[in-house]
Amino acid sequence: MNEERMKTLVNIYLNRQSEITDGETDTRSKWVAVSNCVKKWDIDADDFGKMFGDAMNKAAPLINTAKSSPVEGIRLLCKNERTEDVRDAFRDLLARDGGDLNLRQEHVLAFVKKINDLLAETVPDEWEVRQKVRTAVMYLALIRPTDNFMYRAPEVSAFAGYTEFDEELGYDRSFRMHNYHRLCDDMLDYVRTREDLINKVNASLDDKGRQIKDKDLPHIDPTMHILVYDIIDSAYHFDFYEDKAAKKGVKSSTVQQRKHEKMKKRAALLEEREQCVDRFDEVKAERRAAKIPKLQGKKVAHRAFGKGEIAEQDGRYLTVVFPEVTKKFALPGCIVNGFLDISGGQKIVDAVNRMEEVSKKYRDVENRLTSLDVQLQMLE
């Protein structure tokens, strides 16, 4: 890591404290969310769903996005009699790993799969409540802040790029927790030497604690894990990288300027990818809802083969028996493109047209997601 650049960002963070703790942008909400969660979390609670809702009450802005609400997904499962399954999933996620971050990452991936399988089974059309890797990492950081760091790929990628961190961090299912903790630990080594920073942040947390009547707020982060992520997060959302002091550090050579531009591009791509994943989940739900009409037994007509009957339907594939030949056709193209004229009215045609529309949206989003992944790989 380029320590001078990291120090530059820490100094900007210190100098802009009044801005980043003001009003709706108050970054102290991270400490508030953790304090609330630590106090209310109880894995053995009789009413796990209520406990989870109370514990995550202040954390939703850290976990949810404009289009996704993973917190609501956990609550939905509990409301649909899957409480014990959810409790077991959290037990596995929080299982002690002796500091083995590779094992912890396995727990994260297993948690995401288990909860999403339960959601697909219980509320299949609620695409916006699916869990992601960063969701599980956030749960860990909220419940056990002294052992974990909050995480979101665009913010972390921008910080790593600017500070020339030399290990691959990945994203989504390729996220490399071990390398991310190394980046955060490198920061911690420096942050712990900055008494001016620590004193200013603690004084600010004292003020916030008095405002919300939470005397424990200044003491909720003894390991300074929340502080480290808040610096990373603030650098991205308050655009520290465009600060004069930060830009001064990247003007010394063309190579550094190119690295800086690469960092910004990667962060922007990760931001778009996160939105694209949400869109993909949405379109997948639309595709499931656009059910294939049951057409077996329906009469059809073909320009070349004449009148026939759908003898068999296997998903979107039709077997049609004509007087002299039996042919196979695929929905929705066979109807939309006019190969088959089907009896039964406009409703079938409308349903098939809807399938074609949703299928196109699915392909478009899938292709865009693939394109983003390729671009991100090229930037590694």
Describe the structure.
By secondary structure, this protein is an alpha+beta fold. The protein has a domain at about 5-250. It is built from 17 helices and 5 strands. It has helices at about 5-15, 15-20, 30-40, 50-55, 60-65, 70-80, 85-95, 100-120, 135-145, 155-160, 175-190, 195-210, 225-235, 245-250, 255-290, 335, 345-380; strands at about 300, 305-315, 315-320, 325-330, 340. A 5-stranded antiparallel beta sheet has the order 4-3-2-1-5. A hairpin with a 2-residue loop joins strand 2 (about 305-315) and strand 3 (about 315-320). Helix 3 packs antiparallel against helix 4 (about 50-55). The protein starts with a helix and ends with a helix. The mean pLDDT is about 90.
Name the features.
380 residues; alpha+beta; five-stranded antiparallel beta sheet
